[in-house]
Design goal:
Layout lengths: L1 E9 L3 H19 L2 E6 L4 H7 L5 H8 L3 E6 L15 H10 L4 E7 L12 H4 L4 E7 L9 E5 L5 E5 L5 H16 L5 E6 L5 H14 L6 E6 H10 L6 E4 L1 H13 L8 E5 L5 E5 L16 H13 L4 H16 L2 E2 L9 E2 L2 H11 L1
Parallel strand pairs: 1-2, 1-3, 3-12, 5-10, 8-9, 8-10, 13-14
Antiparallel strand pairs: 4-5, 4-11, 6-7, 11-12
Helix pairs in contact: 1-10, 1-12, 6-7, 8-9, 10-11, 11-12
Length: 358
């Protein structure tokens, strides 16, 4: 295959981790007979610095003409004082919206070699952790009407609109149920706040209707506050969690830390068809940018998701994942997952070691 990728190196550690991911993809291409063509596009803080916009029109055009998007990280304190519509994070929302990417898939798996890095007690994590959070990406508070207004003697008032349609809920629900059908446990937990929020009540109604179409899948509802508690009390109970945009944003970060480090977790943003945007779930970490300290594994594993989910390259994806597992089993660590007896590597050296194991 000849695969054309739009690449957002982005801000902070983004360029460093993308470099290592491209090295891995190039080795996969060499090993399996594929070629990868990378076109860098501007998005995030670097785009603001160069063009005054977090997401230039040219970047969207190139992304749409590509087979998928590989993204490093965007944002940082340098741009924190900008108004909301000019913040680097608007580039992510814009790309998801423009590219029709409504489903964010975030697997959280605890590698055996990193069991000691898990902050949970051994008696909690002993049963392992292998769950996936399916987060709706283009609705909810992040995309609703928002603004500020004066409210008499109370001064300025801010508001954000939360809304979901039946179609949006059913669409993300089907992604979760179809994903569960491909997994061993075949279980879906739908997370909402139906005891308080009207959108959650509609969410629950639609999910219940949908569950009837998948009799082979075990289904349950769970309130978001309970889910947050259960993720640290008994994470092994979960298989596939499906939830709305903001809840998914928060819960997936919580789930990531139960695996030892947010630097280990990949993600994909998918729409209709095979096109996707692939990125680590962590941020730009400007405090360690340019110091060869960042963990590139989440970005590399995002590439494995891309190979499998967008291009159907199952063996290639497995090769990447196996190479990462081998490196971890051999005791190699970046600083964020370093443990006693581990062999400390920098960003570049970790990428080289994974390539070596391919």
């Amino acid at each position: 295959m000849n695969i054309k990728l739009a690449v957002v190196k982005g801000d902070g550690i983004g360029p460093e981790i993308i470099t290592e991911a491209e090295k891995v993809l190039d080795k996969i291409g060499e090993k399996f007979g594929h070629s990868f063509e990378y076109t860098d596009i501007l998005a995030g803080g670097c785009a603001i610095d160069e063009t005054g916009k977090p997401l230039p029109e040219e970047s969207v055009k190139i992304a749409k003409e590509s087979d998928s998007v590989l993204l490093g990280a965007v944002g940082g304190p340098k741009w924190d004082t900008l108004p909301g519509n000019l913040r680097p994070e608007r580039a992510l929302l814009g790309l998801r919206s423009e590219l029709g990417l409504f489903a964010n898939i975030r697997p959280a798996k605890l590698h055996d070699a990193l069991a000691d890095a898990c902050p949970l007690k051994p008696e909690i994590s002993k049963d392992g952790l292998d769950l996936v959070i399916v987060r709706e990406l283009t609705g909810g508070l992040y995309f609703g009407d928002r603004g500020r207004r004066h409210s008499g003697n109370d001064g300025e008032e801010a508001y954000d609109e939360l809304k979901y349609s039946e179609k949006e809920i059913e669409r993300i629900g089907r992604v979760a149920f179809n994903l569960a059908m491909k997994r061993d446990r075949k279980k879906v937990t739908s997370v909402d706040k139906a005891n308080v929020i009207e959108t959650s009540r509609l969410w629950r109604e639609v999910m219940h209707k949908l569950a009837k179409e998948y009799p082979a899948v075990e289904f349950e509802d769970m309130l978001v506050d309970n889910c947050a508690m259960q993720l640290v009390r008994n994470p092994a109970q979960f298989d596939v969690i499906v939830t709305e945009n903001m809840f998914g944003d928060i819960l997936s970060d919580e789930a990531s830390m139960t695996t030892g480090s947010i630097g280990m977790l990949p993600s994909s943003s998918l729409g209709v068809g095979t096109f996707g945007m692939y990125e680590p779930i962590h941020g730009s970490a400007p405090d360690i940018a340019g110091q060869n300290k960042a963990n590139p594994i989440a970005t590399i594993l995002s590439c494995a998701m891309m190979l499998r989910d967008s291009f159907g390259l199952m063996n290639e994806a497995k090769a990447v994942e196996s190479a990462v597992t081998k490196v971890l089993n051999d005791g190699y660590r970046t600083a964020d997952i370093m443990d006693e007896g581990g062999k400390l590597l920098g960003t570049k050296e970790m990428g080289d070691k994974i390539v070596e194991n391919l």
